[in-house]
Amino acid sequence: MADLYSKVTLRPRSKLERIIELLQRATSVPKRPDSTVVVQLVLYYLVSAEVSPSDASRLVKSFHDDLARIDPARLVEVEAESVREACPERHLGDLVSALRATGLAAREGLEELSRRDIDEAKRRIAQLPRMNAESVDLILLSCGVASTVAPSAPARRVACRIGYPGTTYAALARALDAEIPEGDATDLAWRAHHVLAQHGRDICQLPRPQCDRCAVRASCSYHGEGDDPASRLSNPGIAG
Which of 29, 6, 25 is nearest to 216 (CA)? Predict the structure, then answer.
């Protein structure tokens, strides 16, 4: 059973904190990357273009300046030939366009903006190619400048089944984020992102969740019987 009060501050713990404590016992949470917004954007576009992890790492380094920081000019001036070997031809044009757009945003001061005005940074990132609210939130969470759960489709399925309100990404993200306390906000958001997603993939599946293996069944409003709240989600995700 999860503690109802923080052992440090003695404040009441949110439902999200208690849920994550119970689920994390069976989850491996990766270390949050120590990188910048621009690096995360570049990696996002490389991975989306089916570039392998090793090639993605090599290409990121090729955009560095002498101080091992991303040089916006190198992104703005990137040519298809420099990434062709690592990128499938069907994604090449989109990847080059996205990298150039990222370079322009970096040149305009995106990194500084993300640490000065997070809402304005979100709007600027959302203007980049193939960005949606979930991608924007995940990028900002990954580099530690925003304390948002950025719930994936499996995580949203878990959230709605355990009683969080909403059927869209925006509504469920807002409900989860409202329960993130001050102090270790980014750490909890990072853990919640991964713990809820893994639970959704491994246990709280579509179409039939494995309720007998669920560590938070007592908090669930579904229990695998009757009307499934996840069926009302705008994007319920996949079975796995």
Answer: 25
